[in-house]
Amino acid sequence: MTRRHLLASALIVAGCGRKKGSGFPGYAFVANDEARAVAAVDLTAFAVARHIRLDAAPTAVVAHPTERAVYVLTPASGQIHEIDAASLTVRRSVRVAQTAHSVRLSPSKAELWVACSNPRQLVRISLDAMRPDGAVPLPDDPFDFDIAPDGKHAAVTFGAAGSLAMIDLESRTSRSYAEGRNLERVRFRSDGRAILAGDVGTRALAILDAPTGRTVVNLPLAVRPDNFCVKGDGGQLFITGEGMDAVVFVYPYNTEVAETVLAGRAPGAMAECLTPDVNYLLVANPEAGDVSVVEIETRRVIAVAAVGRGPACIGMTPDQQYALVLNRLSGDIAVIRIAAIAATRAKSAPLFTMIPVGSGPVSVAVRGV
After folding, report:
1. Could you please report the per-residue DSSP string of 34-48?
2. Do residues 28 and 331 make contact, with C-beta atoms less than 8 angstroms apart?
3. Whose CA is closest to 257, among 183, 184, 213, 205?
4. Is the Cβ–Cβ distance between 320 and 309 less than 8 Å?
5. Where would you tag: which of 40, 211, 264, 290 has the fewest CB atoms within 10 A of its CB?
């Protein structure tokens, strides 16, 4: 038998030993801010089906979990665009402000809330009518915000301007707390009774009592709290940022830092992958152009995948079969098939495929069809 036949036989045997990926019946909608477009990626063909052009640069994409709709924010034009996830066309658009900042889908899935900087306010958009139907004034330009699990309150941070605003979304009133603190990232604890806010000035995690605004504890961190990722069950918060090549594991219910784990070079954006067999934290390392795969239970890096230039965002398909890594500098998506990740001595995770999507991909949302 020739060497060619031996190689062919080995490849066939290797291929038979690994179950082939089936794709996901739906689309990944990728906001490309430099191209002023949303790329709709067919996740069965793993190719761009359409580039949906917009009037301004999109920065955030939100998929509705039950309706065939995707909502896109274009901050410079102050608009929200509704994309039909079946026809891949813009169905409706609404202007909410001169300049918008960020958007969240409410827990009821019946409205969007948009934080705006001109004018400074938090605006409610009814998805039935697709129009603004109420607003709450804000004291300064918002940095980040979150909606409580019961949908009745919002927490808004203002960065270097200081303070955190707790907003009653039913009465449309607000109260300010933590005056003078440089709070940026913010999330409600999964029970809604505590607010988790990253203080970049002191490199700490401030945990506040939501009903009163009282600071329960300030947890010193080894990194600046630039990026948050909340575990699906709400039991852990993962934090990365400037200061150390690590991920900080926090138990928000015990109000304690569990461990600080080395996880690549200058780690940034994160995403959790949870299946019956695995529980991974995927951590993007933009400077190194790779993604570290951390096993959450053991808190160790089991694999590293080289993905491209400037990975800045990670999305997961709803079936948790694929991780979609947006490479901002190279303008593509690196697709990692979760089942192909294995804890080996080489610690190398293979890529499933690469998909060119356009200039400056910054946000992704996946919607089934």
Report:
1. TTTEEEEEETTTTEE
2. no
3. 205
4. no
5. 211
Sorted by sequence, the CB contacts under 8 Å of residue 11 that are 6+ apart come out as none
* Residue position matching structure tokens 């999305």: 315
Amino acid type, 160: A
* CA atoms of 244 and 8, how far apart (whole Å): 46
What is the token pair recorded at 302?
């089991």
Whole-number Å distance between alpha carbons of 336 and 307: 9
* Residues contacting residue 306 through CB under 8 Å, at least 6 positions apart: 289, 290, 351
**Residue 7 pLDDT more than 60?**
no
Chain-centroid distance of CA 355 in Å reads: 19
**pLDDT tens digits along 22-36:** 799 999 999 999 999
- Which residues are within 8 A (CB) of 354 and not within 5 positions of it... i.e. 6 or more apart? 308, 332, 333, 334, 335
Which pTM value belongs to this model? 0.93
CA distances 1 to 4, 5, 6, 12, 152, Å, are 8, 6, 7, 16, 72
